[in-house]
C-alpha cells in the first residue's frame, strides 16, 4: 500500500518511525503523543478540514484561484508600483532554496552570503537617501513611518516629556497615517496630522506647541514633490524638533536626497526595486538616519567586523538592542525583517547599476511628464507641476474616468470625486501614455519620449548632483553570467535548509515544499495591486478567506486576520485587541500583562508597544509557570491585570500539565489569555489553544505553516481570536484618516489589508495537501524526532526540562552548564564547532543561558537526526579531552572553531592555527562522512565586540579585503575580485 501523499512532507518513513519508536519504547506515534500531551487539553475530534489534495490537485486549485484575479496595468501608485523583477534574480533568488530557506543570520560565520547581500541593500539605501546609516530592512512603509515616529520620540525625549507632539504630514499615504496613529495611541505619543510646511510649524511653535519631530512626505501620496523641503527641515530644527522624510527610493536616483535637505531620518519602501506587487506584500521597507542616531534605530543592522585571523567579516551589529536581551526596554518589538525582499532589492541595484537605475527612473519620469504635458494641453488642471512619476489631475467625473480606464486595461487611482491619479511604472510604455491621454482628456496623439532631456524637464532645479552607488559591487556586473555567479558565490557562503537540518528551537525550520513556493510568482497572484477593485481580486479574496477559515478550525478560534506581517506584529495585534476590549468595557485600569520569566523577549517588547506594563511570573523548577507566584501576582494586582501571555508548549519545550489551571486563574481575575503560537508545531491536530483556554493567539506562518524564513523574513503572523474579540481585529489601513476612529474597536497594524498576502498561497497549499490527518501526523512526528534526539543525547548533553513520562514537546533544551563549569567550553563554542560538522547551531542561550535548544521538526529523517547525534557525541568527546586535561580549553579545537578551507590548508597550520594542539584532520574532518560531503564556513570566528566598537554598516572598500595582493571584494563581483 502506497504511503499517503502527505508523507512527502514528513521526514521519517515507516521504517524510520518504527526504529525511533522502538528506541523510545512506544508502539505508535499516537501513543507517544498521548503520553506527552496532557489529557485535559487533548483535542476531542479530528480537525474539520477538507480532504487532502495531492500536488497536482493543489496546483489546479491554485490555478483556479489565480484565474479569478484580473490582471491590468497597475498605475494606482499609493506606495505600490509596477516593477519588473529581472529573470536572473527571480530564478536565482526568489525561486532558489539556497536563498529562501536560510535562517536569520544569528550565526554569522555561516551567513556571510546573505549578510553581504543585505549590506548591499544598506549601502544602496544610504547612498540614495543621503544618510550614512541604514538598517537591513523593516516590515513595510507604514510600519516604518510608525517606527520613525517612535524613534524620534526616543531621540528627543526631553521634548516628549514636556508634552511635545509629533507632526504627521497629511500628504502621507493613508495607510502610513493610520498605522502610525495606532502605534502612537497605544504608546501614548501625541501625534497631530497636519500639513507640514514652514507656516504651520511657525504657527504651532508660536502657539506654544513643543515639537518633538515631524514626518514629511516627499513625494506626497498624490505625487507632488516638495520644493520647500530644506526650508521645512530647517524650521523644524530651529524649533527643537527632528525630521523624518518618507521618500520614494527610485525617485531618489534623480532628485536631491533627504540627507542633502538636512533630514535626520528617511523611510520608505524598496518594493519598486524589483519586488512584485504581491497584493500588498511582502516588501522591504527601509530606514536610514544620521550616524549619531544609529544606536536608537529599530530592527537589524548588518555591520563589518573581523574574524579570528583579521579577515573582514559581516555580522548583525549592536545586538544588545535585540528583544531577547532588552525585552520591554527594546527599541521596537521587531525580531525579524524582510530579508529576502531586501536581498532582491539590493540585487536589483547590483544588476542595473547606477546608470541602469538612472535610465529606468528617467524613462518613468519622462512618460509621467508626457502625460502631464498632454493633460495640460487639453486644458485640464494638474495638482502639481513638480513630480517624479505620479500625475494627479482634476476632472469633472473621476469615477467614470477610472472606470473607462479599467475597461481598457488600466487601473488608475480614484483620489476623490474630481481627482484621478496616474503612477507611471517601469513597464509603462509611450503607447500606454497615448491611450491614457485619450481616455482622460479625449486627446488623440502620438507619444514619443525618446528625446526627453532630464535637465530640461520639471526636475531640472531639483536634480541631485552627487554620485550614487559608487561602490564596485554596483559597477562591475555587465553580463548575466557575472550576476549568476555572484549570486551563486554568495549562496555558497551560507548554510541553509537545502544543505542541512537547522535545529533551531522555537524557530521551526521545516520543509518549504517546492510545490508551495511555485505559485507565488505567477503573475495572476504577484501582479495584483492591493487597492484594485474587489472584483479584480476575487481569487485572492477567496484564497485568503479559505485560509483564515482553515486556521480558525485548526486553532479552535472564532476568527482570524492575516494582516499582521510578522510574528511581532501578530503579538502586537493580539495584545492591542486585549487592551481595546478592556477599554470597551470601561476597565481602563487593566494595563498590566503577566508574562512568564522564560518567555521570548518579543512578548515583553510587544506588550510595551501596546501600552501595557509587564509583570514577570516566575518559572517553577520544571520550567512551567509557578502557580504559587501566579496566585501572588493575581492577589497583588487584581483588577489591574489585562491578561497573561503564555507560550504553549512552554518556552522550555514541555507541555505544562496545568495550563488549563493557569487560564482559569487569569480568567477568574477578569484577564484575558494570550497564547503565543511560536510552538504551535507541537499542537496542530492534537490540541487547540482556542479551546483549552486561549482568548487570542498569533501564529507564525513562517514556522508551522511553511512560509520560508528567507534569511530573516518574510514572515506572516496572523492573529486568531475568540468570538468576543472579533470586533477588535485589525481594520482597513486605507480608511479615511480624517474620520476619527471609534474609541473602541479594531485598528490597523500594517500597511495592507491582508499584510504580506503574496506568500499566503504557500501556507494554503501546505494545509490543503496535508489535510487534517497529515497535519496531526506532522505534529506527532515533531514530538517523535525531538524526543529521539533528547533520548540519544541524554548521556552526552542532558535535557534540562521534561514533562510527563520524561518526555519533551517538539524541542528539547540541552544543558551544557555543568560541562562548562568543568571544562570552560561554552555553548557558544559548541555552536561554532557544529559548523565544522556541517550543521547550523541550535538556539543558543535561550531561554536559559548556557544551553542549546534543539527543534528537529517533522521534516528530518532518521539519517539526518543520526548525523546530528553523531556530531554532538563527537563534540562531547572533544569536551572530555579538555575535562581530562589532555588539552587546555584555550588550545582546544572547540575554542578555535570554525575552520575555513584556507585555514586548514595553509602551510603554517600548526604554527598559526592549531599551535600543535590538534591536526588538520581533526579541525576539518572530525567524522569520516565529512570527507565526502564537506561545507566550509567562509570566515572563522567573528569578533563581535570589535564590530560594535568600530561600527561600519556600509560596503567596505575593496582594498579592505586585500590579501597578498589579491582582492576578495566581499561586495565586488568582477573576475579580478574572485575569492582567493
TrEMBL record:
Transmembrane segments: none annotated. It comes from Corynebacterium provencense. GO terms for cellular component: cytosol; glycine cleavage complex. The glycine cleavage system catalyzes the degradation of glycine. The P protein binds the alpha-amino group of glycine through its pyridoxal phosphate cofactor; CO(2) is released and the remaining methylamine moiety is then transferred to the lipoamide cofactor of the H protein. Keywords: Oxidoreductase, Pyridoxal phosphate. The modification N6-(pyridoxal phosphate)lysine is found at residue 703. Belongs to the GcvP family. This is glycine dehydrogenase (aminomethyl-transferring).
Amino acid at each position: 500500500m502506497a504511503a499517503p501523499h502527505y508523507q512527502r512532507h514528513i521526514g521519517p518513513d515507516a521504517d524510520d518511525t518504527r526504529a525511533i519508536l522502538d528506541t523510545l519504547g512506544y508502539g505508535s506515534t499516537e501513543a507517544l503523543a498521548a503520553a506527552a500531551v496532557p489529557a485535559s487539553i487533548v483535542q476531542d475530534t479530528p480537525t474539520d478540514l477538507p480532504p487532502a489534495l495531492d500536488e497536482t490537485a493543489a496546483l489546479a486549485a491554485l490555478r483556479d484561484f489565480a484565474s479569478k484575479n484580473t490582471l491590468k496595468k497597475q498605475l494606482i501608485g499609493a506606495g505600490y508600483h509596477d516593477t519588473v523583477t529581472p529573470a536572473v534574480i527571480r530564478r536565482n533568488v526568489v525561486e532558489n532554496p539556497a536563498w529562501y530557506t536560510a535562517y536569520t543570520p544569528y550565526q554569522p560565520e555561516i551567513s556571510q552570503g546573505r549578510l553581504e547581500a543585505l549590506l548591499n541593500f544598506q549601502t544602496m539605501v544610504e547612498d540614495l537617501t543621503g544618510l550614512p546609516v541604514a538598517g537591513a530592512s523593516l516590515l513595510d512603509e507604514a510600519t516604518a513611518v510608525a517606527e520613525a515616529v517612535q524613534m524620534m520620540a526616543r531621540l528627543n525625549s526631553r521634548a516628549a516629556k514636556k508634552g511635545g507632539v509629533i507632526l504627521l504630514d497629511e500628504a502621507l499615504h493613508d495607510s502610513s497615517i493610520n498605522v502610525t496613529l495606532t502605534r502612537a495611541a497605544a504608546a501614548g505619543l501625541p501625534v497631530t496630522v497636519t500639513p507640514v510646511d514652514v507656516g504651520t510649524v511657525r504657527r504651532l511653535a508660536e502657539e506654544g506647541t513643543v515639537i518633538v519631530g515631524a514626518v514629511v512626505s516627499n513625494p506626497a501620496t498624490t505625487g507632488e514633490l516638495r520644493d520647500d523641503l530644506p526650508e521645512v527641515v530647517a524650521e523644524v530644527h530651529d524649533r527643537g524638533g527632528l525630521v523624518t522624510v518618507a521618500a520614494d527610493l527610485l525617485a531618489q536616483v534623480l532628485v536631491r536626497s533627504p540627507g542633502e535637505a538636512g533630514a535626520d531620518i528617511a523611510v520608505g519602501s524598496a518594493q519598486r526595486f524589483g519586488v512584485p506587487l504581491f497584493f500588498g506584500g511582502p516588501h522591504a521597507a527601509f530606514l536610514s538616519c544620521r550616524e549619531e542616531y544609529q544606536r536608537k534605530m529599530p530592527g537589524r543592522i548588518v555591520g563589518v567586523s573581523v574574524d579570528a585571523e583579521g579577515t573582514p567579516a559581516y555580522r548583525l551589529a549592536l545586538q544588545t538592542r535585540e528583544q531577547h536581551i532588552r525585552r520591554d526596554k527594546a527599541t521596537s518589538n521587531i525580531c525579524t525583517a524582510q530579508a529576502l525582499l531586501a536581498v532582491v532589492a539590493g540585487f536589483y541595484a547590483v544588476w542595473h547599476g547606477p546608470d541602469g537605475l538612472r535610465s529606468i527612473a528617467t524613462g518613468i519620469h519622462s512618460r509621467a511628464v508626457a502625460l502631464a504635458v498632454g493633460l495640460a494641453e487639453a486644458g485640464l488642471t494638474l495638482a502639481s507641476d513638480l513630480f517624479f512619476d505620479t500625475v494627479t489631475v482634476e476632472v469633472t467625473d473621476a469615477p467614470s474616468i477610472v472606470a473607462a480606464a479599467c475597461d481598457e486595461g488600466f487601473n488608475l487611482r480614484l483620489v476623490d470625486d474630481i481627482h484621478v491619479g496616474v503612477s507611471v511604472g517601469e513597464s509603462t510604455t509611450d503607447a500606454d501614455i497615448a491611450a491614457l491621454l485619450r481616455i482622460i482628456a479625449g486627446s488623440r496623439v502620438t507619444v514619443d519620449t525618446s528625446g526627453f532631456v532630464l535637465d530640461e524637464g520639471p526636475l531640472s532645479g531639483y536634480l541631485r548632483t552627487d554620485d550614487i552607488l559608487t561602490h564596485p559591487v554596483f559597477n562591475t556586473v555587465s553580463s548575466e553570467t557575472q550576476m549568476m555567479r555572484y549570486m551563486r558565490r554568495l549562496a555558497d557562503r551560507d548554510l541553509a535548509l537545502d544543505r542541512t537540518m537547522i535545529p533551531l528551537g522555537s524557530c521551526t525550520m521545516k520543509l518549504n515544499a517546492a510545490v508551495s513556493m511555485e505559485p507565488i510568482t505567477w503573475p495572476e497572484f504577484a501582479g495584483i495591486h492591493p487597492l484594485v477593485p474587489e472584483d479584480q481580486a476575487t481569487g485572492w479574496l477567496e484564497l485568503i478567506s479559505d485560509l483564515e477559515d482553515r486556521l480558525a478550525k485548526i486553532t479552535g478560534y472564532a476568527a482570524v486576520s492575516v494582516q499582521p506581517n510578522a510574528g511581532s506584529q501578530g503579538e502586537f495585534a493580539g495584545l492591542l485587541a486585549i487592551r481595546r476590549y478592556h477599554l470597551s468595557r470601561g476597565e481602563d485600569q487593566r494595563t498590566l500583562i503577566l508574562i512568564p520569566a522564560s518567555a521570548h523577549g518579543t512578548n515583553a517588547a510587544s506588550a510595551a508597544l501596546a501600552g501595557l506594563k509587564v509583570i514577570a511570573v516566575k518559572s517553577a523548577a520544571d520550567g512551567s509557570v509557578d502557580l504559587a507566584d501566579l496566585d501572588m501576582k493575581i492577589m497583588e494586582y487584581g483588577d489591574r491585570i489585562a491578561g497573561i501571555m503564555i507560550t504553549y508548549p512552554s518556552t522550555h519545550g514541555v507541555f505544562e500539565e496545568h495550563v488549563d489551571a493557569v487560564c482559569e486563574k487569569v480568567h477568574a481575575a477578569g484577564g484575558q489569555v494570550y497564547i503565543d503560537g511560536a510552538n504551535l508545531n507541537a499542537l496542530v491536530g492534537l490540541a487547540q489553544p482556542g479551546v483549552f483556554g486561549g482568548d487570542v493567539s498569533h501564529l507564525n506562518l513562517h514556522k508551522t505553516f511553511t512560509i520560508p524564513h528567507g534569511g530573516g523574513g518574510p514572515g506572516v503572523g496572523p492573529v486568531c481570536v475568540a468570538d468576543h474579540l472579533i470586533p477588535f481585529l485589525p481594520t482597513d489601513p486605507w480608511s479615511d484618516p480624517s474620520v476619527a476612529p471609534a474609541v473602541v474597536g479594531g485598528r490597523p497594524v500594517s500597511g495592507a489589508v491582508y499584510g504580506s498576502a503574496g506568500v499566503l498561497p504557500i501556507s494554503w497549499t501546505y494545509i490543503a495537501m496535508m489535510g487534517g490527518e497529515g497535519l496531526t501526523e506532522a505534529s506527532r512526528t515533531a514530538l517523535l524526532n525531538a524526543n529521539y534526539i533528547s533520548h540519544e543525547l541524554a548521556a552526552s548533553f542532558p535535557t534540562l526540562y521534561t514533562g510527563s513520562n520524561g518526555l519533551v514537546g517538539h524541542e528539547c533544551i540541552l544543558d551544557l552548564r555543568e560541562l562548562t563549569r568543568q571544562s570552560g567550553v561554552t555553548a557558544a563554542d559548541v555552536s561554532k564547532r557544529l559548523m565544522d560538522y556541517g550543521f547550523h547551531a541550535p538556539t543558543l542561550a535561550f531561554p536559559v543561558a548556557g544551553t542549546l535548544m534543539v527543534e528537529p521538526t517533522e521534516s528530518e529523517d532518521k539519517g539526518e537526526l543520526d548525523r546530528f547525534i553523531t556530531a554532538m557525541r563527537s563534540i562531547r568527546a572533544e569536551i572530555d579531552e579538555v575535562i581530562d586535561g589532555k588539552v587546555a580549553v584555550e588550545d582546544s579545537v572547540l575554542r578555535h572553531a570554525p575552520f575555513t578551507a584556507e585555514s586548514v590548508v595553509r602551510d603554517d597550520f600548526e604554527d598559526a592555527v592549531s599551535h600543535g594542539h590538534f591536526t588538520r584532520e581533526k579541525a576539518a574532518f572530525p567524522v569520516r562522512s565529512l570527507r565526502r560531503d564537506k561545507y566550509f564556513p567562509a570566515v572563522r570566528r567573528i569578533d563581535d565586540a570589535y564590530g560594535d566598537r568600530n561600527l561600519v554598516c556600509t560596503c567596505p572598500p575593496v582594498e579592505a579585503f586585500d590579501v597578498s595582493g589579491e582582492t576578495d571584494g566581499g561586495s565586488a563581483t568582477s573576475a579580478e575580485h574572485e575569492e582567493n
